[in-house]
Amino acid sequence: MAEAGKAGATGTPSFVLAETDLADPSKVKGLAFLRGAQPFAAFQTEIDKALAGLE
Q1: In which domain, by residue range, is 43 found?
Q2: 10 in a domain, yes or no?
Q3: Cα separation of 41 and 47, whole Å?
Q4: What's the CA gap between 42 and 44, in Å, rounded?
Q5: Contact 50, 30 (CB under 8 A)
Q6: What phi and psi, each to the nearest 5 degrees, are found at residue 52?
Q7: Residue at 8 is within a domain
Q8: 2: pLDDT strictly greater than 90
Q9: How many Å apart are CA 10 and CA 50, to the nearest integer?
């Protein structure tokens, strides 16, 4: 619960979209945080943004 709180989660459901460092998988970079029950379109938007940033 403490780690979830550090990430900004204050309730459930909460989702973190993140990427790991390929050189050091223990390092994680948060890209987006979605709070509460969200429609698929909200996830799709954040995933599309993250993928665009990889190009």
Answers
A1: 15-54
A2: no
A3: 10
A4: 5
A5: no
A6: -65, -35
A7: no
A8: no
A9: 23
Is residue 1 assigned to a domain? no
**What is the rounded distance in angstroms from the CA atom of residue 27 to the CA atom of residue 17?**
14
Query: Domain for residue 3, yes or no?
Result: no
pLDDT band at 45 (very low <50, low <70, confident <90, very high): very high
DSSP code of 13?
Answer: S
**For the segment 4-44, what is each residue's pLDDT rounded down to a tens digit?**
888 788 889 999 888 888 899 888 888 888 999 999 999 99
| Domains of the chain: total | 1
- Dihedral Cα 41, 47, 50, 55, nearest 10 deg: -110
pTM over 0.85: no
pLDDT at 55: 63
Give CA–CA dist 35/15, Å, rounded: 6
